[in-house]
Amino acid sequence: YQTAGRGRRGRQWLSPFAGQLIFSFYWTIDPKKALDGLSLVIGLAIAEALNAKVKWPNDVLLLGRKLGGILVEIINNKNGLLNLVVGIGINVKLPQSTEISQPYAQLTEQDPNIDRETILIKVIQRIYSRLAQFEEKGIDEEFIQQWINHNEFFGDEVNVFTEQGAISGIEQGIDKRGYLKVITDEGERYFNAGEVSLRRK
Ligand code: ATP
Fold first, then answer.
1. Ligand 1 centre from 31 Cα, in Å?
2. CA 121 → CA 22, 49, 135, distances in Å?
């Protein structure tokens, strides 16, 4: 369990006793490389490993509900590299009393006899392979296409909540920077993950 799990922008991540696969790993990246899109890479890798879906930027969904969360943080280590700590939480089976502020899913819904070790190995292998590809090629066409294939909201009417208010449109996946693409009444708009939240309308 985790007592002070965090989501994006100070939100809470709940991780009750024995309820999740919850782990962090350390990774370094060449500081000259663009980090844009990195958290999408982890999200897609997990979705691929678990036969699940993604919601931009990096939620993992099962049956339309939130199965897992990802938090990528940069830590200071004077080695000339970008030092990342990637934290991942995936619900396996949560106690019924868990109160989460949005609909959530758990892996036992997919398979009641789920084996954590098997899942962990699959997830890590997929993440490492996607990270290696990302370091070599960034967000390329293959990635964009695979991301769209796993995209829960593709073609749906969505609201993008920004600090200036909500913007509505049709979700159209991502671009080469990993930005969200939305067709609005005023034309195409692109959003950076740091600034906004996406919800289905
Ligand atoms: P965004 O779409 O902007 O990322 P988010 O609400 O999904 O928004 P995150 O920071 O990704 O935000 O995750 C934190 C949120 O995840 C919490 O506010 C809560 O609603 C939800 N949450 C917390 N614990 C769990 C859990 N174990 N399983 C599923 N969802 C959870």
1. 29
2. 13, 9, 21
